[in-house]
Write a structure and sequence with these properties.
239 residues, alpha/beta, 7 helices, 10 strands, 27% strand, globular
């Protein structure tokens, strides 16, 4: 059922486009809107979690901060899909590489997401290990667009972790052995909530740290590399 104004988003009906980019940081949402959208309008600032709608190459597009971690993203993605008629969510964030085959500033398109979180165990009454995955069309477009823009992109599963500080002994190494590329904190819940509502979702992340080589990008490099990823996401959004 479509309705306006939820507990966490103060937009009215029609204020939000059917496709929404979702950075974790609300100030990144503001930066994306002011940098790339024409005539952006802030439709919500509840709890300083900004949301904007504007135009990109003649198409209406929104950007909504999600906060950090799966519980926060779950709230905003649920409300966008259930109450505002959103059809497509594209996460744009950062991640730590779990393999030395990934370089700093490269982009990962998460084909699927595993997690140690209990969220899906609770959803499915501990009966199954639900495997949340990306929308295939969005994933294919991400690869095509990155190639067109001559930007490096990797496709593979990620770990959506509940804990920012701490690596359970040997876990990251074991996950890397099974093909998990990077660790972030939101994709698994994004894909699960989208599946519930029959929506499309894709998580794009930029490698800001490599947990194997102990390399890190500077604050300035984070901004420029984040822009590369956003430009891929914007093209996906209008296809």
């Amino acid at each position: 059922m479509i309705s306006g104004v939820t507990a966490h988003i103060s937009a009215e009906n029609g204020d939000i486009a059917e496709t929404v980019l979702m950075p974790g940081d609300p100030l990144r949402a503001k930066w994306i809107a002011e940098t790339y959208l024409t005539d952006p309008v802030c439709y919500s600032s509840v709890r300083n979690m900004y949301g904007f709608t504007g135009m990109f190459r003649g198409q209406r597009l929104s950007v909504q901060g999600s906060g950090m971690g799966m519980p926060s993203l779950s709230i905003y993605s649920h409300e966008l899909l259930e109450s505002y008629g959103v059809k497509t969510l594209i996460r744009v964030g950062s991640a730590g590489a779990l393999t030395d085959k990934l370089n700093l500033r490269e982009v990962v398109a998460a084909s699927g997401a595993t997690s140690e979180s209990n969220l899906n165990r609770m959803r499915f009454n501990n009966l199954v290990e639900y495997a949340p995955v990306a929308n295939f069309d969005l994933l294919r477009n991400a690869v095509d667009i990155a190639n067109e823009q001559n930007k490096k992109i990797h496709v593979g599963p990620v770990l959506s972790g509940d804990v920012f500080y701490g690596d359970p002994p040997g876990l990251y190494k074991k996950l890397a052995e099974y093909g998990v590329l990077a660790v972030e904190m939101e994709a698994a819940e994004l894909y699960t909530v989208a599946a519930k509502f029959g929506a499309r979702a894709l998580a794009l992340v930029t490698i800001s740290d490599n947990l194997v080589t102990d390399e890190h990008v500077s604050a300035e490099e984070r901004q420029s590399s984040f822009a590369d990823m956003v430009e891929i996401a914007l093209e996906i959004a209008i296809r």
